[in-house]
Amino acid sequence: MKTLVSPSLLAADFLNLKDEIEMINNSQADWLHMDIMDGVFVPNISFGFPVLEAVSKVCKKPLDVHFMIVHPEQYIEQTAKLGAMMMNVHYETCTHLHRTIQQIHAAGMKAGVTLNPSTPVSMLEDIIYDVDMVLLMSVNPGFGGQKFIENTIRKVKRLRKMIDDAGTHTLIEIDGGVQDETAPRLVKAGADVLVSGSYVFKSADPHATIEALKKLE
Ligand code: DX5
Ligand code: ZN
């Protein structure tokens, strides 16, 4: 399978959001990744539902929404109403993760579970059958442009094995520090979807950058 690419809007030019979405629409990007932060679970605040709603009206790519917030279960209906394709919630924020995943599915979305760099993939052993995607953070969540945490490669390999052993079709997505040096190694280790913020949006030719990531297999 060719690599799926989900550019992260956090690195876009917010004064020219319409042009940035047009660029994504005309590119080979598979999805658009949107980071919601609350200043509680992570030490930063990004954007919220008004921006998500505006983008959802013009973006032709499926929305891959990453909630870095406490109590993400309170926003399932609101997210589904905007037509989001994937709702990613952090393992660390969900006391009743199984219930939250059921609710995301019942609302008509795909469910993703996100792990912080310090959370082991083994925590997913009993939920892997129920999730459509696991999003591994390869930086500490909250900011774009950070340095890739090398241990992620080992985590991808362990997660790949867990998914293959379970025989599910769960996708592995990676978020943070994905660029020309880390991306090929991540795909080789078993990653299916690459989130990329600064590497795509700050590149001289975002279309070519997305295309290069998509070619990895
Ligand atoms: C970080 C966000 C990422 C961020 C990635 O908490 O979840 O999606 O935009 O940025 P880069 O690709 O620049 O590391
Ligand atoms: Zn993200």
From TrEMBL:
**UniProt-listed GO biological process terms:** pentose catabolic process; pentose-phosphate shunt
Q: What class of enzyme is it?
A: isomerase
Q: Which GO terms describe its molecular function?
A: D-ribulose-phosphate 3-epimerase activity; metal ion binding
Sorted alphabetically, the keyword list is: Carbohydrate metabolism, Cobalt, Isomerase, Manganese, Metal-binding, Zinc
**Catalytic reactions of this protein:** D-ribulose 5-phosphate = D-xylulose 5-phosphate
Q: What is its EC number?
A: 5.1.3.1
Matching entries from PROSITE patterns are given as:
RIBUL_P_3_EPIMER_1, RIBUL_P_3_EPIMER_2
Named in its record, the pathway it takes part in is: Carbohydrate degradation
Q: Where, by residue number, does substrate bind?
A: 8, 66, 142-145, 175-177, 197-198
Task: Tell me where on the tree of life, at the top rank, the source sits.
Answer: Bacteria
The cofactors required by this protein are: Co(2+); a divalent metal cation; Zn(2+); Mn(2+)
What InterPro entries has UniProt attached to this entry? Aldolase_TIM (IPR013785), Ribul_P_3_epim (IPR026019), Ribul_P_3_epim-like (IPR000056), RibuloseP-bd_barrel (IPR011060)
Catalytic site residues?
Answer: 35 (proton acceptor), 175 (proton donor)
Residues bound to a divalent metal cation are 33, 35, 66, 175
Co-factor binding comment? Binds 1 divalent metal cation per subunit.
A Pfam family assignment: Ribul_P_3_epim
Q: Which family does it belong to?
A: Belongs to the ribulose-phosphate 3-epimerase family.
Question: What is the documented function of this protein?
Answer: Catalyzes the reversible epimerization of D-ribulose 5-phosphate to D-xylulose 5-phosphate.
The name on file for this protein is Ribulose-phosphate 3-epimerase
Name the source organism: Segatella oris C735
Gene name as annotated: rpe
